[in-house]
Amino acid sequence: MTVRAHEAVVREWDLRCVEARDQRDNETMRANNLAAELAALKAKRDQQTRNLKQFRKIA
User: Fold this and answer.
1) Residue 40's Cα: distance from chain center in Å?
2) pTM above the 0.90 mark?
3) H-helix or E-strand containing 29?
4) Three-state DSSP class for residue 1
5) Whole-angstrom Cα distance, residue 46 to residue 59?
6) What are the pLDDT digits (tens) for 1-14?
7) The total number of structural domains that make up the chain
8) What gap in Å lies between CA 30 and CA 40, rounded to an integer?
9) 10-56 pLDDT, tens per residue?
10) Keyword annotations for this protein (predicted)?
11) What would the DSSP string read from start to end of 8-25?
């Protein structure tokens, strides 16, 4: 293999590594967003549960 061929292979692997890292970062960001959304939904559920308990005390 020539030096240029080796350089081309190295560039290809560099590109693959960058793409894999970008995909991982995107998946991490998505997972973090889903975790935040889940936490917000749980907080809303908990608030509604408290509201229901309070309503039952009044009724």
Assistant:
1) 15
2) no
3) helix 3-58
4) coil
5) 20
6) 899 999 999 999 99
7) 1
8) 15
9) 999 999 999 999 999 999 999 999 999 999 999 999 999 999 999 99
10) Coiled coil
11) HHHHHHHHHHHHHHHHHH
Q: From residue 43, how far is each of 28, 31, 38, 48, 52 by CA, in Å?
A: 23, 18, 9, 9, 14
Residues 6+ apart with CB under 8 A from 49: none
What does the alpha-carbon distance between residue 15 and residue 9 come to, in Å, rounded to a whole number?
10
Cβ-Cβ contacts under 8 Å for 9 (sequence gap 6 or more): 1
Boundaries of domain holding 11: 1-59
| Paired tokens of 7 | 């350089």
